[in-house]
Here is the input.
Amino acid sequence: MNLTQLEAEIFSLPLQDRAALAQRLLLSLEEVSESEFERLWGEESVRRVADFTSVYNKTIGQEGLPLDEWRSF
Here is the structure.
């Protein structure tokens, strides 16, 4: 099961069950060391930048304009 499938399944749960799960997940994050937390957020930020860049470049490609022109805005 991938993250998208898991999210879909979780969001189909009743509100009370989702709240209980959210609470358990938040509590589990308190068990993560600060260095592990920073590492995880570092990985997440790299993923988010890559996602943004991918969509940005795809959009520019669809407009048919050179990348340098878009970067000048």
Summary: The two ends are 41 Å apart (CA to CA).
